[in-house]
Amino acid sequence: MQTLKAVRSLIHKDIVLEWRSKYAINGILLYVVSTVFVCYQAFKSVDPTTWNALFWIILLFASVNAINKSFVQESRDRQLYYYTIASAKAVILSKVIYNMLVMLLLSSIAYLVYSIIFRNPLGDPTLYLAVVALGAVGFAAVFTMVAAISAKAGNNSTLMAILSFPIIIPMLLVLIKVSKNAMDGLERSASYDELMVLLAINIITVAISLLLFPYLWRD
Amino acid sequence: MKKYWWKILAVLLLLYSIIAGLLGPVPALPIVHETIRNVYFHVPMWFTMFTLYTISVVYSVKYLSSADPHHDFIAVESINVGIVFCIFGLLTGMLWANFTWGAPWPNDPKLNGSAIGTLMYLAYLVLRNALEEEQKRARISAIYNIFAFPIMIVLMYILPKTTDSLHPGAGGNSGFGEFDLDGSMKAVLYPAAIGWILIGIWLMTLRFRLRKMEYQNHTATS
Lengths: 219, 222
Hints:
The complex is a heterodimer of chains A (219) and B (222).
Chain A: H1 2-21, H2 23-43, H3 48-68, H4 76-85, H5 88-117, H6 125-152, H7 157-184, H8 192-216
Helix pairs in contact in A: 1-5, 2-3, 2-5, 3-5, 3-6, 3-7, 5-6, 5-8, 6-7, 6-8, 7-8
Chain B: H1 5-23, H2 39-66, H3 69-100, H4 109-130, H5 134-162, H6 186-221
Helix pairs in contact in B: 1-6, 2-3, 2-5, 2-6, 3-4, 3-6, 4-5
C-alpha cells in the first residue's frame, strides 16, 4: 500500500514537472513531426510494407530519445532525496508507468500525423491501434531499464543505442509482423500468438526491472 | 587425477566424436548428403554457447547477492568464451548453409536471431569498457547480463519456432530425429555435445584463473 501511494505521488510529481516546463514533451513531439516530414519529402509515396516499417523506425528513434532523458534530467542530490523517502521499487515503477504514459501520447500523435500525411489504407484499424499501444508500452518498459543502466555508466547516448537496440529487436520484429497482419486485414486469430509473445515480453521486462533496479541505484 | 579427470574425458569424447563422426554410418538423404556429419560439430557449438551464457547469468545473480569479485570474473569469462563458440557456430553453419541452402547467409530467423544475440553480448563487453570503477562495473554489467538473458532466449529459441525457418525442427520441417532411426547419430551427437561443453568450461576456468592471478597481483602491489 505504501509503495502504491509512493508510486502515485512520484508519477504525479513527474507529470507536474513536465507540465511546468513542457520542454521534453514539446521537443520530442517536434522531433516526431519533423522526422515524418523528412520521410514524406524523401519518399513521396511508399508501398504498404515500407509504410509499416518506416512508422516503427520513426517510433523507435523517437522513443529512444524520449526515454533517454528520464534519469538524467534530475540532479544526483534530488535522486538521493527520492531514495530516502521512497523504495527503489517505487522509483522504477513510477518511471516505467510515467514513460508508458508519455509513449502512449507520443505514439498516438505520431500515428495521427503519419497517417494524415502518408495516406495508407488500413485493413483492421482497431487491431493496428492496439498493436501501436502495445508497442509503445513495450518500448517504455524496455528502454526505462536500459536508460537507468546507461545513466549509471556516464550516460552517453551512444551507449544507450548500443545497449537497447539488440534488446528491442525481438519485440520490434514481432510488432512489425503483427501490424502488417492488421494492415492487410487478416483474421484476428492469425495474430493471437504474436500478441501473446508481446504481452509476455512486456511482463517479463517489467518484472526483471523491478527485481534488478534495487541493485542498480546505489553508488 | 581426482581433479582433472573431466578434462581427459573431454579430450577423449572429442576424439571419439571426430573419428566416429567422420567414419560412422549416416542416413543417406537428398540435398544434405554427407554434409549431415556437420551436425556433430555445428549443434554442439550452440549447446556450449548456451551452457556458458547460463553459467554467466547464474554467476551474475550470485555476484549481486555476494559482491565477490570472483563471481564477476566467472560471469565475464563465460561470456568471452561463449562469444567464441557462437562465432564458431555461425561459421560452421554458414559453411553448411553454403552447401545445402545455396548461400552462406539465407534470410533465416535463426541466423538473424543468433547474430543479434551476439550483438547483445558484444554490447555487454562495451558496457564493461565504459565503466571505470571496478565494483560499479561488475554490478552494472551483471544487471545488464541478467536483463539481456531472457531476451536472448526469446530471440534464439522462441521466435524462430513461430516463423518459417530453413532449420530442421522448425516451421513444419522435420527434425533430424526422424531420419536417425537406429540412434547411431545420437550416439555420436550427445558425446560430442558433452565433450565440447566440457572444453568450453575448461577454457573458461583457464581464463578465470588468469584473471584471478592478475587481480591478486594488482591488489598485492597497490
